Amino acid sequence: MTEPVRILLVEDDEDDYLLTADSLSQCKSPVFELVWAKTGEEAIEHLQTNTFDLCLLDYLLGQENAMDVLEKLKSLSVTIPVVVLTGQADSIVDDRVMRAGAEDFLTKAEVDTPRFMRTIRYALVRREIETERLERNRIEQQNKAKDKFLAHLGHELRTPLASILGYTELLLDSPGNERINAELSTIFNNSKHLLSLLNDLLDMSRIMANKLELVPQTLNLNGFLTDLYSLMVMQASEKGLVLTVSANSLIPEYIKVDPTRLRQILINLVNNAIKFTDTGEVAINVEFDKDNDRVCFAVKDTGIGMPADKLETIFKPFEQIEDLNHANHGGAGLGLAISNE
After folding, report:
1. d(CA 8, CA 43)
2. What distance in Å separates the CA atoms of residue 200 and residue 223, rounded to the nearest whole number?
3. I need a labelling partner for 152 at 20 to 30 A (CA). Which of 130, 262, 296, 325 fits?
4. Cis peptide preceding 81, ω within 30 of 0
5. For residue 206, what pLDDT band results from cuts at 50, 70 and 90?
């Protein structure tokens, strides 16, 4: 059921209040909930402590007028669409209240006419549009601040990680360090893991902000697959797995693609397959779809598989499926999410 539209009527004349209430009650959609305030002070108190969608404000309120109330609302940063009502049409008053922040200006004689309801609807629509605009601006500002923070964080973390990786690799290659090679390898592998997590987090942030751009280039497909195999075969061998690359059909020599992102996607898929496979093989299959003029890649493994009801879950950020032995395979659960995006 739709929530009623809450309206605050600021009116010191009971007859005018009853007339306005009767007019609003005749509207079936939307349904209005009317709250009555007799003075500007009472109206301010209501607006500071309650939520309203619209304020109907009488121009003359005893010794004060609508200008005083509008000024007070502005000073208190109370934002609400205000429609000013007056006994007689006056172009000067009309101009003054509109400049002071009112949405519209009507005579009380128009309360029981179609224009009254139309004015209310327009004021509510304008408020909704303004609310959406402010929310978009707020989100944009938050995203800018987040992007700036992540860029700074990425720089501050990448620099020391690159140094750790570089010096550790030098120590591993230097003679005389054989007795601490195991410890150095642990440092090197954990640093690579941290750098990979950092890159995944930054990529996911760019994707969510719609700032990850693809840069298509002409790519030698055979050379690309050879490099990919060379990069991943050692990781597979360390687990006793066989890594294969095959093509079910004649594939084109060159394709148009963003090579960096394609490499990232396939590495994520192959890495995930190796991670969850204990015995057997991981196979990369390439096929050319002539009908749609595209190259299709498939990564298969002889791992534990997964329940059918979890197939969508694995492509969500920070989601992982535990295997049958509840082993901890590490990672932040971002690789497949990034590949899917």
Report:
1. 8
2. 25
3. 262
4. no
5. low
Question: What pLDDT does residue 208 have?
Answer: 63
Residue 121, in any domain of the structure: no
Average pLDDT of span 55-67: 86
- Tell whether 14 and 102 lie within a shared domain: yes
pTM score over 0.90:
no
Give the domain extent around 104.
Answer: 5-112
Full DSSP string of 103-156? SEEEEGGGTTSHHHHHHHHHHHHHHHHHHHHHHHHHHHHHHHHHHHHHHHHHHH
Q: Cα(123)–Cα(55) distance, rounded to whole angstroms?
A: 10
Cβ-proximal residues to 18 (8 Å cutoff; 6+ apart), any chain = none
Helices (H), the chain: 14-25, 40-49, 66-75, 91-99, 114-173, 181-208, 221-238, 259-275, 335-340
Is 130 a member of any domain? Answer: no
d(CA 21, CA 33): 9
Model confidence at 211, in pLDDT bands (50, 70, 90)?
low
Same domain? For 69 and 145 the reply is no
What type of residue sits at position 236?
Answer: A
Say whether pLDDT at 115 is over 70: yes
Mean pLDDT of the chain, nearest integer: 82
Percent of the residues in the chain that have a pLDDT greater than 70, as a whole number: 86
Decide: 319 and 313 in contact? Cβ < 8 Å: yes
d(CA 203, CA 211): 9
The residue whose two tokens read 């779809």 is 289
Helix or strand (DSSP H, E) at 35? strand 32-37
